[in-house]
Write a structure and sequence with these properties.
134 residues, globular
């Protein structure tokens, strides 16, 4: 597969709609069964992080940059979820600063997201894609 250097507006709109639908469904569950929803959240949002990344799986890495933006953070979160038992790791090629990041998750911390944190990550990711992959 060749690296993807652009995403069209229809594709991005469809992916945004999928994210919005997942958030809406979770929030409906949260209202109906708050304790169950909160117990369900860590695995659910970890899976949504992986899904969000998969929307842009073949993105050209050089366009993503290395300054610690949302796409870099998404990559690092996925690596932590898949390869580091759900703990945020470090990436020697990315200038990641948890204090300036979307999620605020530092290296060595457990990756735990709720609906609000995932929503912020998704919005920042879509903005970063829109800026870098036109």
């Amino acid at each position: 597969m060749l690296a993807v250097t652009s995403y069209n507006g229809d594709y991005l709109a469809a992916r945004r709609a999928e994210v919005a639908a997942q958030l809406k469904a979770y929030r409906k569950l949260l209202k109906a069964a708050p304790d169950e929803a909160k117990a369900f959240a860590p695995g659910h949002f970890a899976s949504l992080v992986l899904a969000l990344d998969s929307y842009f799986l073949h993105r050209q890495r050089s366009l993503e940059g290395k300054e610690g933006g949302a796409l870099n953070e998404l990559r690092m979160l996925c690596d932590g979820i898949k390869d580091n038992y759900g703990v945020m790791g470090q990436n020697a090629t990315i200038k990641y600063d948890a204090g300036k990041s979307v999620t605020g998750i530092a290296a060595g911390e457990k990756i735990l997201l709720d609906d609000k944190l995932f929503e912020r990550l998704a919005e920042a990711t879509f903005a970063d894609v829109g800026k870098r992959y036109r």
